[in-house]
Amino acid sequence: MKKVICIFLCIAMLFAFASCKGKNIKEEKKENIFCEADNGMLTVLSLDSASGIFVEKGNQDNVKGVATIIVRNNSKQMLEYGKIVFRVNDIERAEFIVNGLPAGEQCVVMETTARPLEKDDVYKINIDDSMFSYCDASTESEKYTLNVEGSTIKVTNNTDAPLTVRVAYKYYKDNRYYGGICFRGSFEKIAPGKTMEKTSNRFNGNCKIVSITTE
Question: Three-class SS of residue 15?
Fold first, then answer.
């Protein structure tokens, strides 16, 4: 009888341990998020203030304490254009615009007017005014060969007809894209078998190409 009780207690302890372990795993999977948009296709992971370079208008101005979100694209396509609108304190408005965010990736985005985030501000997403569009995106094709050397992008036309190639790229920092803005370079009518190159002060080691299209 003592053996039976001992075995029963051991089994009970094992189940209790397994239950606790399962609970911890579930807790680890919990994710703190600020809100969701476009029926869960986008997740706003956080809203906070940030200081640094304000790239949203393509400039290099330094700003302090600007309302900033981290947004994640949960869809299977690139977020071609997203405008996430918030009501602030029920009477004001804040907008965050995201271009060219690849599927599954995150992006740090400052408010479009560099609006400061005040301590008592209350942000509520305005779904009706927000807009989203998605598209398929690729950075590889047999039609061209692309090489990057520092700030120079070289594109070779592998076809037997003139080819126009458009390259879209974004800043990338700390395993996230930085800035909602997406820069684009166009290589017009490259002759068959020829290589065209362009250099940009914006394109450097802190950038990633997110999409390449051809015409």
Answer: helix
